[in-house]
Amino acid sequence: MELSANRNAFAIALQHPTGIIQSVVPLPSSKSESNRALIIAALCQEYCRLENLSEARDTQTMQRLLASSDEVLDVLDAGTTMRFLTAFCAATRRKSILTGTARMQERPIGILVDALRQIGADISYEKNEGFPPIRINGFSPRQNHITIRGDVSSQYISALLMVAPVIPGGLTLQLTGKIGSRPYIEMTLQLMQRFGAQATWEGDSIHVPEQSYHAAAYTVESDWSASSYWFSIAALAHKADIRLLGLKTDSLQGDRVIIDIMEQLGVKSDFTDDGLQLTKTSHVESFEWDFSDCPDLAQTIAVIGAAKGIRMKLSGLESLRIKETDRLTALQTELARFGIATHEVDGHTLYVHGNEVTPLRASEEMVRTYKDHRMAMAFAPLALLHPLQIERPEVVEKSYPRFWEHLAAAGFTVHPIENPTTA
Questions:
Q1: Is 70 among the catalytic positions?
Q2: Is residue 162 within 8 Å of residue 39, measured between CB atoms?
Q3: In sequence order, what are the beta bridge partners of 277?
Q4: CA distances in angstroms from 398 to 80, 133, 223, 322, listed in the order given
Q5: Could you list the residue range(s) of the whole structural domain that residue 348 is in?
Q6: Looking at 241, 296, 346, 372, which residue is catalytic?
Q7: Is 247 within a domain?
Q8: Residues 239 and 192 in one domain
């Protein structure tokens, strides 16, 4: 497998000769934890030792920009980096212009900018109202209590919470509506506490007093979002014996819920001294789940349902519209290539019509990834059933740079190709 030398290959051909997986997987570190820890460490007055930081492009971008003295900060396609740096630069009075890729300039940031303006940030839009690029001109404390929607992106809330201790007088956030991705907010508060910052969350109100962060050492856990693709591989393999390294029973990550989900979808998991052991078991015929707290798992689960003939109702998907691509539309389009019918209700619920009588068929068309790492990795396990072509394999560098190498180590054949079959 020579993918490392062909990271810009237009596509890859992917298959598995036996469908039998026996592998030990050194999962990547969590970029969600890494990016939060980097922001908090930058707000500390002393050096913080951060270990096992993610190799993901998003985290590397965050590190590079925090260390940069340039006025223009290009976050590329890293949504978390854009949101966290917007709050960081405003609260630390760092005059800067934040920009990114064409897709990043289509992803909304108005809710966060409005909140920062309320507490005293001077921010203007360089191009389109409500979207990057933005210019941060300064900060003059104005108020310490703001109201913000909880149903769009928890990253807005996390961005505000992390800078709240350095805001004169602290900050109280009043959350309105449904709170999406609550575990990510809880992760933020727990990481803040690891570095000495206290907060209280009562009902829909989170209060963070003005205070100092304290230097600490922190080791980032392996990424539970990345583990989901190996749960999928275990579910679709003929036989599976997979050990995932570096996962903890007391994880801060909300995507740990993949254990509970996959118990229903055919994978049993047991913690070991160094991680998690996966083995195959039986699965249900129909499945329902609200993904409001774990939207990054939705694509993977939909593909599993399609492949195993499980009827699914997946709700809480509204945030998928504003990710790296419109994931809800992309998911339906690509499942249709394999003969799987879906239908969407109200923009936040997806029905996947898995049917064991009419199983997922082989597709002669290339799987499109829409510049979205999770589209590539969610569909890759289907190579256990049929040979696949997947476009733009380098998209995985955003969160799991060694994904294809790890698949090859597990017995998949992974070949870069220059002339893939096209739709």
A1: no
A2: yes
A3: 243, 270
A4: 11, 21, 13, 16
A5: 3-28+222-417
A6: 296
A7: yes
A8: no
